[in-house]
Structure formats: C-alpha cells, structure tokens
Amino acid sequence: MFFAITQIWNDSFLLFVAYEALTMIATLTLYTACFWLRREKGAEFLSAGIIVGIVAAIVDTQSSLQMTWIWTFNNHGLFHLVQMLSLLLIAIGIHVSHLPNSNALTE
C-alpha cells in the first residue's frame, strides 16, 4: 500500500514523515504493552530504543542545533549520534529477548 502511494506522490517527503511517525507510534505502543502487560524479556530496551529514535528524529528537525566534540556536528550529525544509541538499545532488547533467563542482563 505504502509503495503504491509513493508512486502517486513520489516527491513528497512529508508522506514519508507521516508514514514513519505512524509506524514508530504503533511499534512503541506494541513494545510498551509487551513490557507492561506481559513482562516480555527485552521489551523495555526495545521501547527505550524507539523513544530515543523518536528523539533523534526531533533533533534532526532542529536546524539550529550544533555541537563541537572533536568535530562539529550539525543537526543531521547529531541525529546520527542519537540514532546510534537508539540502535544499541534495540540490539540489547533483541539480545535479551532471546536469552533463556529473563534476569540475565541484570545479574
């Protein structure tokens, strides 16, 4: 469905942003429910990773942001730094979800 819509409105970045926002909110809702309702292993890390990813997207929209740490990073560079933290949390969540012992990371 998304592919068909992008073929009609192929020059609209706003369409991608809307799709990404809906996907991230739905995913965050599912993993948060897995954590709070079912106590699934790793769901807290997956939820945190998605939240950090959303924060990264917000950082990317702030064109006035800039930070110098070894190099100067503009908003796009900062987005990638924050997104790396998001991916790390998601990778930890996936790893923990496959461990036989649910408390293996905290022991």
SSE inventory with pairings:
Layout: H1 2-8, H2 13-36, H3 43-61, E1 66-69, E2 71-74, H4 75-97
Antiparallel strand pairs: 1-2
What does this entry look like structurally?
It is a single chain. With 107 residues, the chain is mainly alpha-helical. It has helices at 2-8, 13-36, 43-61, 75-97; strands at 66-69, 71-74. It has a two-stranded antiparallel ribbon.
pLDDT < 50 stretches:
none
* Cα separation of the termini: 45 Å
**Number of helical elements:** 4
Specify the overall morphology. Answer: flat
Biggest sheet strand line-up: 1-2
Query: What level of helicity do the residues show?
Result: 55-70%
Beta fraction: 5-15%
Structural class: mainly alpha
Main beta-sheet annotation: 2 strands, antiparallel
The tally of strands reads 2
Order of helices and strands: HHHEEH
Write down the overall mean pLDDT: 86
Rg, alpha carbons? 17 Å
